[in-house]
Structures are given as structure tokens and as C-alpha cells.
Amino acid sequence: MIFEKRLEIILDTLKEFRQVSNKILIDKLDISESTLRRDLDFLEQRGEIKRVHGGAILTNVEFEEKSYDKNIVLNIDKKCNIAKKASNLIGNSKYIFLDAGTTTNLLIDYLDKDINVVTNGIMHIDKLNKKKIKTILLGGLVKSKTNVTIGEKTILELSSFNFDIAFIGANGYANGEFTTHDPSEAKIKRLAIERSRKAYILADSSKKNRIYFSKICSINEVDLIREDL
């Protein structure tokens, strides 16, 4: 296989899976380890990939996971606009999954108390209680950085509900996919989408063309609400 074709296959594989082991690439390309090493070195020098232990990742994969406290002060006007638009989509929906996050937190300001909310977002509880909205907080392991519950207990409890509508946060959207930093959080978001009759991603334009490690879903599985739509 010629050099240029090998590079194309390596990049296409990384775009699909984001992180790929050397073994998978060697098998896929049917080349030696030394040949793969030279190909990866070339792509890394060109700035297209980053070598990691036992494999490679795309260089445009975001590594930083912002805390809830840092996120809440960013793009407030845009997030408020998105929250207001999202509230207009609720209609007669009674059972809502409210994902963790700063934009979904602002959505609470527009919610009517005659609904039922299920969430893994600890940051939402005070607001929901003050508005006297019936709320179920999913149990599980508390992740303090993003102020959420995650893990098998969270998944198990979420699996027992069905929703009219789900509002989901995402850290990035690019290449027809929505992504987030933590696989555990991505799994919860995916399940909530599957358990909902209708699902919306709330993401401001700063998230565009950003790719994070964990895929939430494809763009054809949900509708995107952003400030300029």
C-alpha cells in the first residue's frame, strides 16, 4: 500500500474512533510496526495527530474538562437565549429529563411547576425546589468537578424511566457528532436520549468544531438548539 493511502486510512480511522491502538492500525494496514511508527511520526510532525502510549489520537481532541463553576460564567447571554428557546418546545410535556450543565440550569427559570423532572445534575436541585417542581435526583457516584452523579447506580435508575422530552448538554459538536469529555457522562446522556420521545442538545456556538473524547450521539438522533437558530 502506498504511503499517501496509508496516511489517509490512519486519519479516517482516527476521525471515526478518535483514539486507535497501534495493533489495530497494523492489522488494518497490514504493515510492520516500524512502518507504522514512521507513518505516525510523519503525521505527528505535521501536527495532525498526537502519539500516546500504544496508539495515537487526533490533535484536535479537547483535553480540558472545565468545572461547573468555570462554565457557569461563560457565554451567559447565549446560554439564556438557548434556554428560552428550549422552554418554548416543552408544550404539554410532563416528564422531562434535565441533563447536568449550565445551560440546562438556566432552562429551569422558564419551567412550569406542573411537570416532573429527572436529573443527575446536583446543581439543579436548589432551583427546582424553590420552584416547587417535582424532581427525582438520580443516585450514584458524585463527581464533584462537574457536580453530577454518574456510574452504574445512575444508569440503573435512569433505565426505569421514560420521558416526553430530554434536554442534553454537550461540550462539542463537529463532524455530525456531539461529544463530551467523560465516557461515564456520555453514557448517561445517550441513555436519556434513548428513553425520550424527543431529545434536544443545548449547545452555544463556542462548542462548534470542538471534539471531545466521548461520543454522545449523532446529529440525526437529536435536534440542536443554539443561540443563532
TrEMBL record:
Which Gene3D superfamilies does the record match to this protein? 3.40.50.1360
Q: Which PANTHER family match?
A: HTH-TYPE TRANSCRIPTIONAL REGULATOR SRLR-RELATED, TRANSCRIPTIONAL REGULATOR, DEOR FAMILY
Q: Which domain of life is it from?
A: Bacteria
Task: Enumerate the UniProt keywords alphabetically.
Answer: DNA-binding, Transcription, Transcription regulation
Does Transcription appear among the keywords? yes
Q: Which residues form the HTH deoR-type domain?
A: 3-58
Q: Under what name is this protein listed?
A: DeoR/GlpR transcriptional regulator
